[in-house]
From TrEMBL:
Major subcellular site: membrane
Residue ranges of coiled coil: none
Family: Belongs to the ABC transporter superfamily.
Keywords: ATP-binding, Cell membrane, Membrane, Nucleotide-binding, Transport
The name this protein goes by in its record: ABC transporter ATP-binding protein
PROSITE patterns, A to Z: ABC_TRANSPORTER_1 (PS00211), ABC_TRANSPORTER_2 (PS50893)
GO MF assignments: ATP binding; ATP hydrolysis activity
Topology in the lipid bilayer: Peripheral membrane protein
GO biological processes: transmembrane transport
């Protein structure tokens, strides 16, 4: 049985011009210890689908699914309190833009302890020791001193490491990483990806990597789901996807990799896939 199983997930948002469907009948699953990449252009519904699983969408969102099960539990039928007990403890998420996700008014130590207070029965000294342990695990130098640092006193890479520390604080069974290297320079991107893969291997977590970067997919994933305009258009193991993609859209994404450039610029997806093919995929 998969650790997470989602079937026919649909997410719509109420707008002034009527409902907007951001996710349209997505099926996906991930096994314990597996790395699943969800890839596609911006606006393809990657993040929205996972936020629906987390129960973190705005009030104007309507979420329906034939199935949304985690560890044998039906997430759609759980009470809000029971679902909150799972979210942050058994399922955790690293959000885009760490500087926007961390509260500028509180120290990173306080914010990490908040996660532990919510989900684990630890004393004050135990919580502090655990926070130091977490900051050490994610490679923050002088972790005991960094407890009292505010987010603005840390670099973007360090803030991302703090977000990762928060996410792994309670040893989650599933970690969702939403564009974890966005806005970081290339060297820091590599460090963050290496850190995530090490933590995934050490703790045996399932990892869902949301990205538009096919290079990240090649480095990290066991299996890949490709999305376009809220729909799943292809799913395959990573080797098959890169060597024998079935869909024209997937082939276009691969052709847009920098190493595949043949001229002065990379082609766009619209230049590589006909309008009729894109319309057929989006139906």
């Amino acid at each position: 049985m998969p650790l997470l199983s989602v079937r026919n997930l649909t997410v719509s948002f109420a707008t002034s011009t009527g409902p907007f469907k951001a996710v349209d009948g997505i099926d996906l699953s991930v096994d314990a210890g597996e790395v699943l990449a969800i890839v596609g252009e911006s606006g393809s519904g990657k993040s929205v689908g996972m936020l629906a699983v987390m129960g973190l969408l705005a009030a104007n969102a309507t979420v329906t699914a034939d199935e949304m099960r985690f560890g044998g539990q039906d997430l759609l039928r759980l009470s809000p309190q029971k679902r909150r007990e799972i979210i942050g403890r058994d399922i955790a998420m690293i959000f885009q833009e760490p500087n926007a996700s961390l509260n500028p008014c509180f120290t990173v130590g306080y914010q990490l302890e908040e996660v532990l207070r919510e989900h684990l029965d630890l004393g004050r000294r135990q919580r502090r020791d655990r926070v130091v342990e977490l900051l050490t695990a994610v490679g923050i130098p002088d972790p005991a001193e960094r407890l009292n640092s505010y987010p603005h006193q840390m670099s973007g890479g360090q803030c991302q490491r703090v977000m990762i520390a928060m996410a792994i604080a309670c040893h989650p069974k599933l970690l969702i990483a939403d564009e974890p290297t966005t806005a970081l320079d290339v060297t820091i991107q590599k460090q963050i990806l290496d850190l995530l893969m090490k933590l995934q291997a050490d703790q045996g977590m399932a990892l869902i990597m949301i990205t538009h970067d096919m290079g990240v997919v090649a480095e990290t994933a066991d299996r890949v789901v490709v999305q376009y305009k809220g729909r799943k258009v292809e799913e395959a193991d990573v080797l098959t996807l890169f060597t024998a993609p079935k869909q024209a859209y997937t082939r276009a994404l691969l052709a847009a990799l920098p190493e595949n450039a043949t001229g002065d610029r990379l082609p766009t997806v619209a230049e590589l896939v006909s309008a009729d093919e894109l319309a057929g995929i989006a139906r």
